[in-house]
Amino acid sequence: MGFFHMTTVRFYLSSKELKRGVAVLSGEQFHHLVRVRRGRVGDRVRVFDEQGREFEGKVCEIRKDRALIRLIAECLPSAPPSIEITLLQALPKGRKMDLIVQKTTELGVWKIIPLITERTVVRLPRPDRVARWNRIALESCRQSERRSIPLVSPVTRLEELDLASLSGLRIILCEGAERGLKEALRGTAEDKVVLMVGPEGGWSPSEVELGLQRGFIRAGLGRRILRTDTAGIIGVALVQYERGDLG
Prior knowledge:
- With about 250 residues, the protein is of the alpha/beta class.
- The strands form two sheets. Strands 6, 7, 8, 9, 10, 11 and 12 form a seven-stranded parallel beta sheet that branches.
- Strand 7, helix 3 and strand 8 form a beta-alpha-beta unit.
- The radius of gyration is 20 Å and the shape is elongated.
């Protein structure tokens, strides 16, 4: 008979909500603990905050609409990431951005900036869509046992992108590049990478030229033509494999 490992359920609360050694779960998190996980008084849980801290806790009381968690001890701090990846992702059609945010968060992306480009075929999304992407990132952190929460920034147009705060190796993924992503990464010791991924229709020549003028180098992902959502996820995974903590 086989055995499987049950991971300790994790919850996110802001640092302001973790005072005096007690945390309160309400709303969706209360529902997840009591209805989904069938939590009971005495169960062990973990709670993490936006500062990267994580605590061992025990359910000490369950009320009608909330649960009280007694914080027992702070967990050892996690090692800082070996590389910080910022993903500049041209907006894809439909709900594909949801998947990009979810999977790249699991892979350890540091920041995501959605882009509007010349060939982007979707309209500028409402502000609540960005809030949704940040909730998806938070949920991915909870499930993947990640403590640092990536920020999904407001959507910006490529020509208005402020690169002043984005230091490190800048790479634009495009077809026909003279080098692959692996080669581009091995040619530098930078611990920060800015990865720019184009839309379904690809970059326009003027956008590639703009990227080169702003310090980006061209790199490709091989002979296959990948969808933009696939390229973003694979690109982050390859950077983590070559320079980060994947594999």
